[in-house]
Amino acid sequence: MIIPRPSDLTELPGRFVIGPALHLEAGPGTRPAADLLADYLGADRPRTTTGPVVRLHLAPELMLSLGPEGYRLEIRPRRVELTAPAPQGLLNGVQTLRQLLPPAALDPATAPADAWWWPCVSIRDRPRLAWRGLLLDVARHFMPLDYLYRTVDRLALHKLNVLHLHLTDDQGWRVEIDGWPRLTEVGAWRTGPTADGGPGGPYGGYYTARELRDLVDHAAARGVTVVPEIEMPGHVRAALAAYPQLGNRPRQQLPVWDRWGISEDILAVDDHVLDFCRQVLDATAEIFPSRHLHIGGDECPTTAWETNPGARRRAAALGLGGVRGLHAWFLTQMHDHLAARGRRAMSWDETGHSPGRLPAGVALTAWRDPAHGAAAVARGHQVVMAPHTATYLDYPQSGDPDEPAGQPGGTVTLETVHAFDALAGGLTATEPGSRSPGVLGVQAQLWTEYAATPAHADYLAYPRLCALAENAWSGRRTGFAEFLTRLHPHRERLRALGVASARLPTATH
Question: Which ranges carry the Beta-hexosaminidase bacterial type N-terminal domain (predicted)?
Answer without folding.
Answer: 2-125
